[in-house]
Amino acid sequence: MKNTSSGAEESFFRKKGFFVALYSCLGAVAILALVITVANFGQPGFQAEDYEEEAAPVAADQVEPYHANIDQEAWFRPRTTPEPTPEAPPAPAVTPPPRQAPPSTPSPEQMPVPPDETPPPTVAPAPEDEADVPDEPPAPAQTTSFAPFDAQDDMLWPVYGDIAMRFSMDALIYDPTLVQYRTNDNLRISADKGTQVQASAAGQVLDIGRNVLRGAYVKIDHGNGWIATYGQLADSKLVSVGDVVYAGQLIGTVGEPSIFGTMHGPHVNMRVTLDDVPVNPYELLAAR
């Protein structure tokens, strides 16, 4: 009796070896195809789209060719080294010629004299006749003298107006600006602002100034110890220190009153002294 089991096993192994050989050949073919594909991937003519899935169509005007402007032959041409440009030699420095002084015109004495001619004699200009020259008038001398004031004479009013505050040295009188009773060593004569103020007598200007008591003032020496101060004037100066003035000469205008006379309004503050002693100006002014 034959052993059927061994025959069946032998047949099974024969079939199994066949399939192993078949699968090995297929694997070798697949590996060879893969190697060929990888080797040809970067070669010219290889189209990647043959191995990729179908993509969305793109218009031709939307794709800019990358190698459109590349000169294919430029990669194989040897590069030439540019020749260096020769530098121009520096221009030589130009030294300006020295400036020549302009020829001077010779004076008549330096002119050459021809040998056959004799230079004319120099004639001095004839002096002018003194009788023909008019005499220049002498400059008027500044007078420094004046007729001194005398107590028997009258003084002119510096301005004409009402008495805003009278002179009083022996009794107290009310001062509306200071709101108190006090003595007063001057005479205050009301006048509109801008009224012309005249010198009460001839004299010489001693001082021009300003203070809080009398405002802007002009102080005049009238001679014989008589001195008058005209206060509460405008700042414009019509006379100067040292000027000799005559009686009735304009010496200023009425200005704004100082802080010690605001309640009296615009006025002239006239103060007269004899040997530095205050005197009542009202008794010296001419009767109106």
Task: Sum this structure up briefly.
By secondary structure, the protein is α+β, with helices and mostly antiparallel strands. It has a domain of 121 residues: Glucose Permease (Domain IIA), CATH 2.70.70. The chain has 1 helix and 12 strands, in the order H-E-E-E-E-E-E-E-E-E-E-E-E.
Structure commentary:
With 288 residues, the chain is an alpha+beta fold. The chain has a domain at 163-283: Distorted Sandwich (Glucose Permease (Domain IIA)), CATH 2.70.70. The protein contains one helix and twelve strands; from the N terminus they run H-E-E-E-E-E-E-E-E-E-E-E-E. It has one helix at residues 4-40; strands at residues 163-165, 168-175, 180-184, 187-190, 196-198, 203-211, 215-223, 226-233, 244-245, 250-253, 267-274, 277-279. Strands 1, 4, 6, 7, 8, 9, 11 and 12 form an eight-stranded antiparallel sheet that branches. The chain has a two-stranded antiparallel ribbon with strand order 2-3. It has a two-stranded antiparallel ribbon with strand order 5-10. The chain is elongated and about 180 Å long. The protein starts with a helix and ends in a 9-residue tail after the last strand. The model is unreliable at 48-53 and 126-134 (pLDDT under 50).
